[in-house]
Design brief:
Blueprint (H helix, E strand, L loop, with lengths): L1 E5 L4 E5 L5 H16 L2 H7 L2
Length: about 45
């Protein structure tokens, strides 16, 4: 299970202890896409 949290200053991607290497890799990929796509700034502009 992977939990995605969003705070206004930076993305937080939580990979639970029971996550296998595929889940952990997916977490890193999601975090990379959040940062690369400037998602935090886009959300701040729309709040």
């Amino acid at each position: 299970m992977v939990l995605y949290l969003l705070v206004l200053d930076s993305p937080v991607v939580k990979s639970h202890g029971g996550t296998d290497y595929i889940g952990f890799s997916n977490s890193l990929d999601v975090c990379h896409r959040i940062v690369k796509g400037n998602l935090i700034e886009k959300i701040k502009q729309n709040i």
